[in-house]
Amino acid sequence: MSTRLKDKEEKIQEILEALKAESANGTPIIVEGKKDVETLLALGIEGVLLAAKTGGKSFLDVVTELEQMGTGEVILFLDFDRRGKEGTKKLKQSLERSGITPNITLWKELQGLLRRDIQCVESLAAYLQTLREKIGT
Fold it and tell me: How many domains does the chain have?
């Protein structure tokens, strides 16, 4: 049991390290809200973190903001619930139409690992903490 949990924790940590590296290289990360941004910051992921659903922003506003930044690629890291999945799909299509490459690889990997354990990015730090307590690290 704890070996499986330890493997899961290590894989999640690898995804977060990859996210941190991409962000450090200047790739913007798009999340849903302000709490998601705060969670990523708490996990040590810095750089350009944009909240797609803050202050009445539409996906079009986010795409326009990214176009103005002149970025060629972004990482989509929305929630794992139904609305997050739908939002990822819509935002991905909008970005592709505007010539910006959306990267959802890390999001898909994390979603596959977490399955139904958590539904939102803002729960990730607490989930990791609980996981670490269970395996005694």
Answer: 1
Mean pLDDT by 10 residues, the chain (137 residues): 85 96 95 95 94 82 92 95 93 95 96 90 94 87
CA-closest candidate to residue 65, choices 38, 106, 94: 94
Q: Which two tokens stand for residue 31?
A: 């999340």
By residue range, what is the domain housing residue 68? 2-135
Q: Exposed (0-12), middle (13-18) or buried (19+): which is 82, by Cβ within 10 Å?
A: exposed
Buried-state track 12-28, b at ≥16 Cβ within 10 A, e below 16 = beebbeebbebbeeebb
The pTM assigned to this predicted structure is: 0.91
Please report, for the domain that includes residue 87, its CATH number. 3.40.1360.10
Helices (H), the chain: 2-24, 34-42, 59-69, 82-97, 105-114, 124-135
Strand, coil or helix: what is 46? coil
**Rounded (5°) CA angle 63-75-12:** 150
